[in-house]
Design goal:
The complex is a heterodimer of chains A (about 375) and B (about 375). Chain A has helices at about 5-25, 30-60, 70-75, 80-90, 95, 115-120, 120-150, 155-185, 195-220, 230-260, 265-275, 275-295, 305-325, 340-360, 370-375. Chain A has about 375 residues and is an all-alpha fold. In chain A, helix 2 (about 30-60) packs antiparallel against helix 4 (about 80-90) and helix 2 (about 30-60) crosses helix 9. The radius of gyration of chain A is 21 Å and the shape is globular. Helix content of chain B is about 45%, strand content about 5%. Chain B has a 4-stranded antiparallel beta sheet, covered by helices on one side. Chain B contains 12 helices and 4 strands. The longest helix of chain B has 28 residues, at about 95-120. At the A-B interface, helix 10 of A face helix 4 of B.
Chain lengths: ~375, ~375
């Protein structure tokens, strides 16, 4: 299939999805429209932040193995640019979804004390601040990396290492804001310390899975011939490790709340595991932990792109399901029909168009990085 | 010189070793083995070694560990001794998961460590010929050795040539040892199995000896004491009772027999106790325990316990009872009155008199005169 036809198909899928998504606002109602919007915003945000985490981690710990792969998470992290607009648009959901932003919040004794924090003005200010903070790593790490392709100046590598700790701080702030505001804000009477870590685990898995699919895409076009089993193995090992980390955090949160049985904690789980949501929660455990865990247990599976490819697809689907499970119980029972499919087409198509474009920017490897040779020679 | 055990070719890096393996393998000189300071990924495949069964063993034992912990906890918490903890059902699977996780890790790591060392690598093996070589000090530090082991029709010189052609920096001929080592994995496994069998057999013998041959009384610590329990039988005394009868005429402290048999005789007695707050407090305490159940907290005959049985308790506030002398009330406590039994066995003498004071106080409180308020 030539690339013009692919582009045409992607554009038409996006347009069709956009039309369906727009129609759902009027047919299915504003809350469902905005819930879908928030789920897809968080899905792409966590994916981009997970990719950014991989870039920042490399600079922070001076990793060598990931240097030849670094351009891939850099390109994925560039999704943060359109996501600023998506996130600011998501502020339209405040009245429809977030009880703390409604005028009635001041009269609710459970959340009246948090009203100033949850209210629309400060909520919007936080989102705007995070959008600005999210663009900062792009300006330093991505622009600098592309410039280094041309001038081969090691100064960028030094600057990136100095900036990496700051970038980690920004990353932590953004993930925590996403978890506490966009997910915690849906049920402001509920409180969980660990929800930010939970979202981080899912974010890094989504970022790694997207990187795996990008490696498959580029290798299929013979654009990454120097990437060997050893490099892919590390991506797979990270993905494997974080399936366990995600399950650990998810179960830790569940078990502590189940044991404590406090009304401000356990009601959330009653809503999220009651009725048909129990099936969704079990499916989530299956797809987010059991399937990728057992698929990646064998040693050579972690470096096998054929196996990693479908595991990455499962992980991305599970991450979407995770966010769906976190957000949609605010509307009642599980809803899945044409509005959700429309949103998937719209955001999925749009993301693929953006990433496809990003794949053409700069070289496929950071050719100016002084550690590229060491990275290429990396062996397990 | 002894027969050769192997020819060692020494390399400076893992990569040089990896590149040499296929070249030497192609010469088909004998079995190849590699010695490296740290695990080199992919070396086992390059040497055509069979895939280690360790991964499968760890998987099976890990799952087995998790299941063991699950069944064990379920049996303890829900079957053998069901107990509700923290308001949760005894068979709550959520509470079992952390233990399942820990036992899974325990089984898996023990299998990985012991299986790798004892079963698969057959360690310890102190008498390995390569340990006697000059190169071993380098191999444990920064050098990588490829060994061509001697077999049928082995030609050491051909092996040296092949290794040098493959890029070996140094060559060493390792002689075969004169005799095998004694401290081997097989020896240790046999010893451990022997110790286990001895423990099992001696344990069973001890159990049988103590249980079926009553030669040695087993130590039972503090369960068996040379002591007489109350109401217990005893062969020591002729009448077979453990407890002795008191000497005839013994009187317990505070329970002197009253010197009267009718209320009229008691009416002459005078309350020996002073009206102090301590006496009134004691009287109130005893009254509320023994008397208030029927006569009411205020002494007005309205009981705290609704009278399910027919008799109507006396209203101590009635004029007839207010006219009673202290001694007559005391007499009623000791002798009982109508349906009321004697309380002599429950109240010592001073407690009865304290109750009398308190009844008087109740009567006065419910029928106060104007000057009492001044």
């Amino acid at each position: 299939m030539n690339s013009d036809r692919t582009a045409k198909m992607l554009w038409s899928a996006t347009a069709l999805g956009g039309a369906a998504a727009g129609a759902s606002y009027f047919v299915a109602g504003a809350p469902r429209f905005w819930a879908n919007w928030v789920v897809w915003f968080l899905f792409l945000l966590t994916l981009a932040l997970g990719a950014l985490f991989l870039v920042a981690l490399e600079h922070l710990v001076s990793a060598r193995w990931s240097v030849p792969l670094r351009r891939i998470p850099e390109r994925l992290a560039s999704l943060l640019i359109p996501l600023c607009a998506v996130g600011l648009a998501a502020l339209g959901s405040l009245q429809a979804l977030f009880p703390g932003a409604r005028p009635a919040a001041a009269a609710d004794p459970l959340i009246a004390g948090k009203a100033a924090w949850l209210g629309a003005p400060f909520f919007s200010a936080r989102v705007a601040l995070c959008a600005a903070l999210g663009l900062l790593p792009l300006a330093v790490l991505l622009r600098g990396s592309l410039r280094q392709d041309r001038d081969r100046d090691p100064r960028f590598t030094i600057r990136a290492r100095r900036f990496a700790p700051v970038c980690m701080g920004i990353f932590a702030l953004l993930v925590t804001q996403a978890a506490f505001d966009w997910i915690g804000g849906l049920t402001p009477a509920w409180y969980s310390d660990v929800i930010g870590v939970y979202l981080f685990a899912g974010a890094f898995m989504a970022g790694l899975a997207a990187c795996v699919l990008a490696v498959v895409y580029l290798k299929g076009r013979e654009r990454l011939p120097a990437i060997r089993f050893d490099h892919v193995y590390n991506l797979g090992a990270f993905l494997f490790a974080f399936t366990v980390f995600w399950a650990y955090i998810a179960f830790a949160q569940y078990m502590l709340m189940w044991y404590g049985n406090l009304p401000d904690e356990v009601l959330w789980y009653q809503a999220h595991t009651g009725g048909a949501w129990l099936g969704v929660a079990l499916l989530l455990a299956l797809l987010h932990f059991f399937v990728p865990f057992f698929a990646l247990v064998p040693w050579d599976a972690k470096g096998d792109l054929k196996r990693l490819r479908w595991v990455a697809v499962v992980v991305l689907a599970a991450h979407w399901l995770d966010l769906y499970w976190l957000v949609f119980p605010a509307l009642g029972g599980p809803l899945f029909s044409w509005p959700e499919l429309g949103f998937a087409l719209f955001f999925g198509g749009g993301t693929l168009l953006w990433v496809r474009g990003a794949m053409e920017r700069g070289e496929d490897m950071p050719v100016g990085d002084p550690f590229l040779r060491e990275g290429l020679e990396f062996r397990l | 010189m002894n027969e050769t055990f192997a020819v060692l070719g020494l390399f400076d890096s893992a990569q040089a070793l990896m590149e040499a393996v296929p070249k030497v393998k192609a010469m088909n000189l004998g079995r190849l083995e590699a010695y490296t300071p740290y695990p080199v990924h992919g070396l086992d495949r390059a040497l055509d070694q069979r895939r280690s069964p360790l991964a499968g063993m760890v998987m099976v034992m890990g799952v087995l560990g998790a299941l063991t912990a699950l069944l064990f906890q379920y049996w303890i918490s829900a079957v053998d001794y069901p107990i509700v903890t923290g308001g949760k059902a005894p068979s709550s699977w959520q509470a079992f998961v952390p233990i399942m996780f820990e036992v899974m890790v325990l089984f898996a790591t023990f299998t990985a460590g012991l299986g790798m060392l004892l079963l698969l690598n057959r360690l310890p093996y102190f008498g390995h010929p390569v340990l006697q070589s000059k190169a071993i000090r380098g191999i444990t530090r920064d050098r990588f050795a490829l060994a061509v082991e001697a077999g049928e029709g082995f030609d050491p010189e051909a092996a040296r040539t092949a290794l040098e052609a493959a890029g070996a920096r140094d060559i060493e001929f390792v002689p075969a040892p004169p005799r095998g080592p004694w401290l081997t994995a097989a020896f240790i496994q046999r010893s451990l199995a022997g110790i286990a069998v001895v423990c099992l057999v001696s344990g069973l013998v001890m159990y049988g000896a103590v249980k079926f041959i009553p030669v040695l009384p087993p130590m039972v610590h503090m369960e068996d004491q040379p002591r007489l329990d109350p109401q217990a039988e005893s062969a020591f005394f002729p009448d077979g009772r453990g407890m002795r009868m008191p000497v005839a005429g013994t009187v317990a402290r505070g329970f002197l027999p009253p010197g009267f048999t009718t209320e009229d005789e008691a009416a002459r007695l005078v309350n020996p106790l002073p009206r102090t707050p301590a006496v009134l407090a004691r009287g109130r305490a005893e009254y509320e325990i023994r008397c208030a159940v029927c006569h009411g907290v205020l002494g007005n005959g309205i009981p705290t316990l609704s009278a399910a049985y027919g008799a109507k308790p006396a209203n101590l506030q009635a004029p007839g009872f207010r006219a009673y002398s202290d001694g007559r009330i005391y007499g009623a406590i000791v002798l009982g009155k109508n349906a009321m039994p004697s309380y002599a066995a429950d109240l010592p003498e001073d407690a009865r008199w304290a109750v009398v004071h308190y009844v008087r106080a109740l009567q006065r409180a419910q029928n106060a005169k104007d000057e009492d308020l001044k």
